[in-house]
Design a protein that fits this description.
By secondary structure, the chain is an all-beta fold. The protein is 0% helix and 41% strand. The chain has a seven-stranded mixed β-barrel with strand order 3-6-5-4-7-9-10. A four-stranded mixed β-sheet has the order 16-17-11-20, with no helix packed on it. Strands 15-12-18-19 form a four-stranded antiparallel β-sheet, with no helix packed on it. This is Putative endonuclease.
C-alpha cells in the first residue's frame, strides 16, 4: 500500500580509541574504517499509484546492491545483497525504509555502489531477474501498482540513499454519471479482453506484456449522494485501449457496453475517461 523522510545515521562507522594522557604527551585518536549501513528514503511520482503518491507504513520494497557501473546480473551483485526486503516505517509522500532482513552495508573502503529497487516486494524474482506480473486480481490496487527506481554512485560518506520511484504500469479510470432516473448505486463493471500477464526486467525496468487476456473486475467507488461512480484498474503498457470492452450492469438490470478510442497504453500514464449513461442509448440493453 503505497504512501512516501529521513533518518539520522548512528555513528556506527567511527570508533575512537583513546588512551590516558599526561602533560608531556598527547596520543591522537585513531579512526577505524568500517562499513556503514545504508538507509533508504523514497519518493514516488504522482502518476498511477493506487493510493495517489503516498507511501504507507508496512510497504515493502526489494533492493539489489550492485558493483558500480554494472547492470543487474549475478556477477554485478555486491556482497550477495540481492532482493533484500526493506519496510517503510512512516505514512506520507516520503518513505523511510529499514531492513526486514540482513541489511545492506556500504564497502568499508569508501568505494561506490549502485542500487536497483522495485515495489511491491516479491520473493518470486527469477534467476535472470524477471519479475512476473499478474493483473487478474485488481483488489487491492496497491498490491499490483508496480514501481521501479535506481540510485548510482552511492558511498558510505552519505549513507542516506534517495530512491525516486516511477510507475511502471498504466492506470485506467472511468468516471460514470447518469441521467435522472438511472441510479449508479449498486452498479458493477467488468472489463473484457485485458492483457493480465507480463513481466518486468529488473535490470532495465522494462515491462513486457504477455498474450494472455481475460476479464477483470475494476475497483469501483460509488458516490450515491451525487449519483457518480469511478472505476479504476491498473493495466499493462502495450495494451490496446480499443480492444477493451467495458460492461456496465446497473442494479435495475440495465446493461451498457463501451470501448475506449484507439490508443496504446504507455508505462506510467493515467488514462481518464468519462461516460454519461442515458435511459436509451445504442449500447444499452
Amino acid at each position: 500500500m503505497l504512501t512516501f523522510g529521513k533518518m539520522m545515521l548512528p555513528l556506527a562507522g567511527i570508533a575512537l580509541l583513546l588512551s590516558s594522557c599526561s602533560k608531556e604527551e598527547v596520543q591522537e585518536a585513531t579512526i577505524t574504517a568500517e562499513s556503514v549501513e545504508a538507509i533508504f528514503t523514497t519518493r514516488s511520482q504522482e502518476t498511477t499509484r493506487a493510493t495517489g503518491n503516498r507511501w504507507e507504513a508496512g510497504d515493502l520494497i526489494g533492493i539489489f546492491a550492485l558493483r558500480e557501473g554494472m547492470p543487474l546480473s549475478t556477477d554485478a551483485v555486491y556482497d550477495a545483497k540481492a532482493n533484500i526486503a526493506y519496510e517503510n516505517n512512516v505514512d506520507g509522500t516520503s518513505g523511510l525504509f529499514t531492513p526486514a532482513m540482513t541489511p545492506i552495508r556500504f564497502p568499508a573502503d569508501g568505494s561506490a555502489i549502485d542500487f536497483v529497487a522495485y515495489y511491491p516486494y516479491s520473493t518470486a524474482v527469477s534467476s535472470d531477474y524477471q519479475l512476473a506480473i499478474d493483473l487478474s486480481q485488481q483488489t487491492p490496487l496497491s498490491a499490483i501498482d508496480l514501481m521501479y527506481a535506481t540510485a548510482t554512485g552511492q558511498t558510505k560518506a552519505n549513507p542516506s540513499v534517495p530512491l525516486t520511484f516511477t510507475h511502471s504500469l498504466s492506470r485506467f479510470e472511468l468516471t460514470l454519471t447518469a441521467d435522472e432516473g438511472l441510479l449508479l448505486e449498486g452498479a458493477t463493471l467488468i472489463i473484457d479482453n485485458v492483457l493480465t500477464e507480463g513481466s518486468m526486467n529488473l535490470a532495465t525496468g522494462t515491462v513486457t506484456a504477455g498474450t494472455t487476456s481475460s476479464s477483470i473486475t475494476p475497483v469501483i467507488s460509488i458516490d450515491a449522494a451525487n449519483n457518480r461512480a469511478v472505476a479504476t484498474a491498473i493495466l499493462l503498457p502495450g495494451q490496446q485501449a480499443d480492444a477493451l470492452s467495458v460492461q456496465i450492469l446497473l442494479a435495475d438490470g440495465k446493461q451498457y457496453h463501451w470501448s475506449p478510442a484507439a490508443a496504446t497504453l504507455l508505462s506510467g500514464k493515467h488514462y481518464s475517461y468519462s461516460l454519461n449513461l442515458t435511459a436509451s442509448v445504442p449500447g444499452a440493453e
